[in-house]
Write a structure and sequence with these properties.
Low-confidence stretches: none
Strand content: under 5%
Number of helices: 10
Radius of gyration: 19 Å
Distance between the termini: 18 Å
Largest sheet: none
Number of strands: 0
Helix content: over 70%
Order of helices and strands: HHHHHHHHHH
Mean pLDDT: 84
Length: 208
């Protein structure tokens, strides 16, 4: 139960922070490249999309590492180094044919394989304690829908870096607002976060 508690909590923290951040970058990739860098780099947008997907999966991999340390199954971390070797080999192979897109594909596929490895290995070691966080993802996506609608409507009006920053600010505000009403954390999880960080998280209510 304790392992499940911390696994669920780490997934929820990730989905609260990283998931909407990466989604926003993916949606506004063209605008970010245009107004932060230059329009001549727009050809790099597909690479951004692939890296965004890679980082979403990659961040979810980190939810396993504290659990592995608690279980003292550090050999799982050692064995996972094979995916670093895979990433390096695929970089060399794909960059010749696809350039930077090949590097992005290699990194993304390595992240997916590493996630599947940890997920499967921990279920073998600990039984069906670990599950894919479908419910939390569904709630996070639902909470992000108003921000998503805003971005798709407003992005056509963005023509400066200031309007880009405004889009980010509104997106974050809407997401936190709907996260407050559509509760992600349980009361027990929220109490634990308050105790650890010494802050009163009034903007995220715990469900009963």
């Amino acid at each position: 139960d304790t392992l499940k508690f911390f696994y669920d909590l780490m997934n929820k923290v990730f989905l609260l922070i990283s998931f909407p951040f990466y989604l926003t970058i993916g949606i506004l990739a063209k605008e970010i490249v245009t107004y932060v860098f230059a329009a001549k780099y727009l050809s790099a947008v597909p690479i951004v999309y692939i890296f965004v997907a890679s980082y979403i999966i990659g961040d979810m991999v980190y939810t396993f590492r504290p659990i592995i340390n608690v279980l003292e199954k550090t050999e799982l971390l050692f064995l996972s180094s094979i995916f670093s070797a895979y990433n390096l080999v695929m970089d060399i192979v794909l960059i010749k044919h696809l350039g930077l897109i090949g590097v992005a594909i290699a990194t993304g596929s390595a992240a997916v394989l590493q996630y599947l490895y940890f997920f499967t290995a921990l279920r073998v070691v600990s039984g069906p304690v670990f599950h894919f966080p479908f419910k939390t993802i569904f709630k996070s996506v639902l909470n992000f829908c108003p921000s998503l609608a805003f971005l798709f409507i407003y992005r056509k009006s963005i023509d400066s870096i200031w309007q880009l920053l405004f889009a980010f600010a509104v997106t974050v505000t809407l997401y936190l607002l709907f996260s407050y009403y559509n509760r992600i954390f349980t009361r027990e999880e929220l109490d634990f976060l308050k105790a650890q960080l010494g802050r009163n998280f009034q903007f995220i209510r715990g469900s009963k």
